[in-house]
Structure formats: C-alpha cells, structure tokens
Amino acid sequence: MARLIAVCSVVMLLVAGIATWRMLDAPIVSVTVRGNLDSAERLQVEEALSSNLHGGLLSVDLVEIRNALKELSWPRHVSVRRVWPEGLVVSLEKALVVAGWGKDYLTIDGEVVQLAAQQNELVLFNCRHVSPKAALELYQRLQRDVAAVDLKIAQLEENALGEWTLTFSNGINLNIGADELDARVQRFITVYLSELSDRVDQVASVDARYANGVAVSWHEEPTVRLAMGMADHQTRTENGLR
Questions:
Q1: What is the pTM of this model?
Q2: Mean pLDDT over residues 5-29, rounded?
C-alpha cells in the first residue's frame, strides 16, 4: 500500500511538473528590441529573430538567438532575456564605426564589421598591405596633425608599393610616399599655410616626397615645385621618389 502511495505521489508530481512546464512554456507573444537602431538595422534584427524563435518562452534557446544576432557583425553587445508571462527583451549596443574599409567598416578598436546600410560620411581606407588597426592608427596620427590647419582627411589610400596618398575633404590629394610620413605631412602643412591655403580651389594635388619642399599640381596649370620658404617653379621630377 505504501509503495502504491509513493508511486501515485511520483506520478502526481510528474503531472504537476508537466503542467507547470506547459504553462511556463507559453507561446512567445511579444519581442521587444531595445537599442538606437536605424530602420535597416531593425530589419536585420527582425529577420534574425524570426529565423531563431523556436519553441515557447521557456524552451526557446536564448544562446542561439544571441549568437544569431552577433553574426550580424555590427552589434558590439547583445543580451536576450525572458519577460514573463509571454515575451522576450532583446537589447543591442552597436559598435562605434569610424571608417570605411573597402566594402566593410572599421570600429574604433580597428575591427572589421559589416553594416546594415552604407555610411558615406566616414573617412574611407583603401589599403593594400597594412592591417586595419595599423591604418587606423596612422589615420588618427595624421588627422591630428592636419586638423591644426583645418584640414580633414576624407580618404587614406595605400598602393601596391606601400605608398600613401591622403585625400582631404576640400579635394586636395597629398602624396606622402612610403617613408618619413609624419615629416612629409609637416612639410606639406608648412607650405600649405604659406602658399596654398588662400588658393585651395586651384590646387589639384601635392607631392611631399621631396627632401626640401613639395611639388604642387594646379588645376589646368603646369606643376611647380615649392621649396621650403620659396617658390622656385622647377619642373616636377619623380625619379627616385618614395
């Protein structure tokens, strides 16, 4: 008799447990997404959620959902939690993107991510050899220098030879080669202040790979070389420059 009572008690506990599970594992009725997201990002999140909401509120795999959202690349932090009796709350923190990297983007930590929508206002990096972090460090260093003369780098490009070209937001291209980059930018700044700042719309490009000056290409005019402290109007020669 005692054994029968024990068995009945176990069965009753199992039945109660199953009933409780079924009650708690109710269908997910609402999913709240929190974060400063634009419309394209919200659409990506909704698509990822709809593909990974398997089961009820108790049986749904929160780790699976979180991993699916992390695969979008642009979220820096993702949390997913249950809110009884019928919903989930998804919170996303976006990575801070500071530059374009080809078709992708760079975060402030130098990590490559993909975005839901194109961002055209960022500085663009086109680099053949250096790592994303190295390119970002170079940009930050050079931008600090040129900001002193109110210039903004719009594009940073490294060619197959490892030579660097800066394109400023005012349209001027600056070739600084592969060596002595900081010194060449400083030489350009000196000439820019003394010779070019009042004629920006006339300047097409500047070559700072000279030892004692820069070569300036003017729109629809011959190229001239500006030595430090003087304009000697010599014809540009690129032999051996790097």
A1: 0.76
A2: 50
